Amino acid sequence: MSRVREGREAGTAHPAWHTAALPLLALLGVVLPLLFVPQLEDFLYYMRPGDLLPAYGTAWLFLAVIAVPAWLILALILKGLGSVRSLRPLRGLLGTGLMAVAAVAAIGALLYCLLVWVQTFGLLDGVSVRRQLIWVAVALGIVLAAWSRGRALVIRSAWPAAWCAAFGALAAISIPFFGWQSGLGAPRAGAADPPRPHIVLLTIDALSAEHMSLYGAARPTTPMLSAFAARATTFDRAYANGNFTTPGIASILTGTRPWTHRALQLPSWPEAATRRESLPALLQRDGYQTGYVSTNPAAGAAKNGLGRYFDFASRDRIRDLDLCTDSLSAIFKYTCAVAAMPLFAQLVTFADDIHGRPGNNHYDPRLATRPALAWLRTVDKSKPVFLWVHLFPPHAPYAAPASWLGLFDPSDDARTLADTAPHWGYTMGDVSPALAQTLDDRYDESVRYVDHYAGAFLERALQLLGPDTVVVVTADHGESFRHGYGAHTGPGLYDEIIHIPLIIKLPGQTRGTRCDALSEQVDIAPTLARLAGITPPPLWEGHSLLGACGSAASASPINAPVFSMNFEQNPRYAALSTGSIAVIDGRWKLVHYIGHPHYPQMPPLHDTLYDLASDPRETVNQAATHPAEVARLRRLIDAALARHGGVQ
Prior knowledge:
- Helix content is 42%, strand content 11%.
- It is built from 20 helices and 12 strands.
- An 8-stranded mixed beta sheet has the order 4-3-5-1-6-7-2-8, sandwiched between helices. A 4-stranded antiparallel beta sheet has the order 9-10-11-12, with helices on one face.
- Helix 1 (3-12) packs across helix 5, helix 4 crosses helix 7 and helix 6 (130-146) packs across helix 7.
C-alpha cells in the first residue's frame, strides 16, 4: 500500500468530529499551556498567584471563540466529503492535512518553550531564530502526518490534549469569580445641596509640556490651548507621578502615587481600596452624572477597574486592531494581560496584515470628541456632570494627517505610521541625530494636530455646559527625544517625560494666570473634590491647588516636594526594591535608582542631580558638586519609601 493511500485511509479512519478536533485540541490543550508557562514570571509581576487561573481561563476562552467554530465547520466538511464515495480520497487528504496542522502547532510550541528555556542561560540571547524554528516545526509536522507511526502518535496525543483543554474550560468557568468587585456606596441625598459645578477632565496622551508653545516651546505647537489658557490658570511646574500611561492615569483618578495605587505595569490596575475611593467613585456617589470616552485602552476606565463608576462610556475610539481593549476589559479583567502573550500578539499582527495598516488619521481626536459632545447635548444639565475624555495623539507613531504633516519638517523623511514609531528607552542612542530630530519634528506636528481639536472640543463643551463649569487639561506623561533616551517608560525620568501640562479653568474665570507652584497629578483629584464640595479621603496623597498661587486662602503646601517614579520591573505586591524615583523640591531635582533594573542597551545608572532653574534641559549632573543637596533629597525619598513599603 502506498504512503499516499495510507494517508488517505488514516484521514478517513476516525469520525469527522474527531479528526476536525485535532487542531482544536492542539491549540487549546498543547499550544496554550506551553505558551502560558513562559509568561508566568511576567504575570506574577502584577498578579497574585490566584489570578493565574482566571487569566488562563480568559486566554482559553479567547482562543475557543476562534477555534470551536472552525472545528464545527471542518467537521461538517469532512462529514460531507465522507458521505460521497467519489470524494472520500479528498476527505482523507484533508484529514491528513489537519493532522499535520495539529502536529506543526504542537511542535512549534515545544520548540518555542525550548528556546525560552535556553535563553534563560544567556544563550542565543539577541539572536533571531524564531523563523527558523517555524520552518523546523512545519517540516517535522509534515513528516509526522505522512508517516503511519507519526499519525498514530498524533491520535494518541489527542486524549491528554483533550484533558488539558478541559482544564482550560474549567479555568474559564472561574472568570466571574475573579472579576471586578461590585458594590457601590449609596448615593448621597442631594436635594438640599448647593449647586455644584460641572467638571470636564481632558487628558492628552504623551503630551510633554516642553513641546508646547504655551510652555515656551519655540514652535507654535499649541495655539488653541494657549487661547484657552488665556482664561484659565496654567501651572508651570506640573509633574506626572509616573512615566507611562497606567500609573499616570491611576494617579490622576485615584489621588494616590504609584507606590500606593500599585498600578506599576502597563496591563495592571489600581488596588481595590484606591478604586473605591477614586475621584469618579466619589463624584458618582455624590450625585454627579459621570461619563468617559477612551482611546488608549491602557487609559480606559474599565481596564483600570473604574468602569462601574461611570454612567456613560464610549470606549476604544481609535482604529487600532488589538485584543487589549477597554470594552473587553469591562467584562474580562485579564484581557490586556492575555493580549501581551506572544501567541495573541502574533494573531493580532496577522489579522492586522490582512486588514491593512491604517492611515495617519486613525488617531483622529474627533473619534473621541464627537461622542463626548453628543453625551453632553443629551445629559440632564440640571444635575452636575463629570466628563473625562482621553485623546491619543501625540502618542507614537507620530505621523499626523496631511494638514499637519510637514508643518515643521517639509522633508520626505518619516511620514508614515511605520517609520515614525519610537525608539524606546536607551535604544534611542543608536539613532542618528538627524533621525532623532525628524522624529522630534513629527511629534511637534502631532502636538499641533491634537491641539486643534482639543481647543475646539473645550470651547464647545463650555457652550453646552455653561459658565458654571470647571475644566482641567493635563497629560498622563510626556515624550523624550534627548539624552539618548526615547519615548517613555523605563527608568528614564527626564523632565521631557514627566513635566506635563496642567491648565485649570474655574467656573466663571475669564482672566488667565500663571502659577509656578510645584504640582503633580495627585493634586488634581483633591482640587476637583473641593470644588464639588467633597472631602478628600485620607488615602489621597495630593493637595487642593485652589489658592496655591498666592491667595491668602491657600490650601496647598506650595513648598512641598513632588515625586515621579517607575517601578515596572518591581513585582506589584512586593516591597519596592527595583526602579527609579525622582523628587523635585524647589529648584533641585534628584533621580535615584534602586535595585538592578535591566533594559536593552542600558548604561550603568547613577543618581543624578539637576538644577532646573539654571539647567532646565538637564544637561549637567551636579551630584558630585552638591553632595548636601543629594543627601537632603535622598532623605525625602528614603522617608517616602519607608512609608510605602520600599527598600532603600
